[in-house]
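Today's session is about reading a structure prediction critically. Students often jump straight to the picture, but the first step is always the sequence itself: look for stretches that repeat, for charged clusters, for runs of hydrophobic residues. Only then move on to the predicted structure, which in these notes is written as discrete structure tokens rather than atom positions. Here is the chain we will use throughout the hour.
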Amino acid sequence: MPVVRELARAAPVSVDTRNAATMEAALEAGAEIVNDISALRHDGTALGVIARHRAPVVLMHMLGTDPRTMQRDPQYRDVALEVARFLRDRVETAERLGIPRSRITIDPGIGFGKTLTHNLALLDRLPLLAGLGCRILVGASRKGFLGRISGEPAAEQRVPASIAAALAATARGAAILRVHDVAETVQALRVWGACASGEAAPAPPG
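Below is the predicted structure for this chain, in token form.
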């Protein structure tokens, strides 16, 4: 909690947890956003904590409820449709319990119970999620499927692959990117945006 309190003085803090008690403590210490890989399914009291604190929340799709088993032969008939339906249901549940759609961000959960083919299908069909009326977050940075595509086994050497995935996600509607290599990704996005619009925004000082 001392770390959360100090960081919250300098910037908005997001806490990544499935546990309601951790959410409560972090929000009271100054965290502003909760990111839950279980989409508020793991802990029955989590929805109440988010509603009471009026905190923005990220609802992510994960196959099953246990990260330790999610990669055991994941199967979908249509991964994009199934993920979209899951997130729709979670958003509707959150709304019924007092969390407005304006405070909800959705995450298709790249790499969380998905194969290489599943991840690529989700990125390609990301616009399916736009109809839910929530911001879309994508976290593909340095993940294993990028190593399989690029042939790069070392995660820290996957910066170009991560940037390529970030640009693809942005082009398909992602509003938030979770990345390791912030400066490199921001630079790539600025150039991509200028090429897409024909205009270059002034770079921030420094």
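Discussion point for the tutorial: The chain has a mean pLDDT of 94.
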